[in-house]
Specification:
It is a single chain. By secondary structure, the protein is α+β, with helices and mostly antiparallel strands. It has one domain. It has 10 helices and 13 strands. The protein has a 13-stranded mixed sheet with strand order 1-4-5-6-7-8-9-10-11-12-13-2-3. The longest helix has 25 residues, at 115-139. The protein starts with a helix and ends with a strand. 46% of the residues are buried.
Length: 360
């Protein structure tokens, strides 16, 4: 990694870590992480968070997934350049436009709704991931788990913006809203036990991220992506919950608990297909959206299997099977398979706490 890239990541880690170090966690109670040996919870690790989160944009069509084509160096330089001088970038875009499209939910159009992923994935999702990472580090017996969680989340956020920025060398206002406002506010928000308790106990929020797989012969990253599931128990309907999934796909639906541990969920909504430019002066893009739907099976809110379909071309149908269903020689692996309308297909396998390998 180039020296500048190292400086960017180190600055982000030290800045957020020192900030979180002074923030007391009111309780040692765990809200999000559970040491289960099955389902999506068994695959939750800091390295999977970084891989899934920093490359989240690669889920879309028209994105280059080969590791040797991802522009980490130029992307980190672009992040650093914009963070050093945010004022000119925002002035180029327009201060009121920046406030109304990036910071506050005032623009409800697709072209002006950049605030939606900022609130969903950076403020709420990023904050929940920070708290879950802290609980994971604490369970592993790591000293100062909040500092380690802060460092992990900082690396993920900076790399996420670098991959999205790519080789763009000019202004980028979207990364400013994320890194300077929503990412660290998420840490503050979920450091409060009342907030963590609400999302954990009332909304049953959890991590249902995909299974990252390196596929050969091209050396591509496939099946990655951060996803968050929320369930709200419907009053008067003991076994039914309203369901919402947020990530590159946003789906609503209903979840039915058919025994003390297992639930099945049906959901539908929209997902991103590809990015197109709105303002190249500030690298502003938005998503082309297509319909999507899925069926999910979970055990104690840990995702066991999912089957989704959408209008995306590269991965139109995706199957994820998590550990705890199939066992081979005492090992319970995870499986991924995908098919695209353009004729492509892929399969892969992964074990707990490790990135998978496959063929595509």
């Amino acid at each position: 990694m180039i020296p500048l890239a190292r400086r960017v990541i180190l600055a982000a880690v030290l800045g957020l870590a020192s900030f979180t170090n002074g923030m007391a966690q009111d309780s040692t109670r765990t809200y999000f992480y559970k040491p289960l040996n099955y389902g999506s919870m068994s695959m939750f690790t800091p390295w999977n968070v970084i891989i899934n989160g920093s490359h989240d944009i690669l889920q879309l069509d028209r994105q280059e997934r080969r590791f040797d084509y991802i522009s980490y160096g130029p992307g980190l330089e672009g992040v650093w350049r914009n963070l050093l001088a945010p004022g000119p970038a925002i002035s180029k875009y327009g201060w009121w436009k920046f406030i109304s499209t990036e910071l506050l939910p005032l623009n409800l159009t697709k072209e002006g709704g950049q605030w939606l992923p900022n609130y969903q994935l950076h403020l709420i999702g990023g904050g929940m991931t920070y708290r879950m990472l802290s609980e994971w580090y604490e369970y592993q017996g790591v000293a100062a788990p909040d500092i380690w969680a802060g460092g992990t989340i900082a690396v993920y956020h900076v790399l996420n913006e670098a991959v999205e920025n790519g080789r763009h060398r000019g202004y980028n206002t979207d990364l400013l809203a994320d890194l300077l406002v929503f990412d660290w506010l998420g840490v503050v928000l979920f450091s409060n036990c009342d907030v963590a308790g609400f999302f954990s106990e009332t909304l049953h929020m959890t991590d249902w991220s995909n299974l990252p797989v390196v596929t050969f012969p091209a050396g591509e990253l496939s099946s990655n992506g951060l996803y968050y599931a929320l369930k709200w128990n419907i009053p008067g309907l003991e076994r039914w919950s309203a369901f919402y999934l947020m990530g590159m796909s946003n789906m609503g639906g209903a979840s039915y608990r058919f025994d003390d541990e297992h639930s099945v969920t049906l959901a539908g909504g929209l997902r991103g297909k590809y990015l197109y430019d709105l303002d190249t002066n500030v690298n502003l893009k938005t998503l082309e959206l297509v319909p999507t739907g899925g069926v999910y099976w979970d055990r104690n809110n840990s995702l066991m299997a999912s089957l989704t379909a959408s209008g995306q071309e590269s991965q139109s149908v995706i199957l994820n099977v998590y550990p705890g269903i199939v066992e081979i020689a005492g090992v319970s692996p995870a499986f991924w398979a995908a098919w695209g309308t353009t004729g492509g297909w892929g399969v892969g396998v992964a074990v707990r706490s490790g990135i998978g390998v496959g063929w595509k």
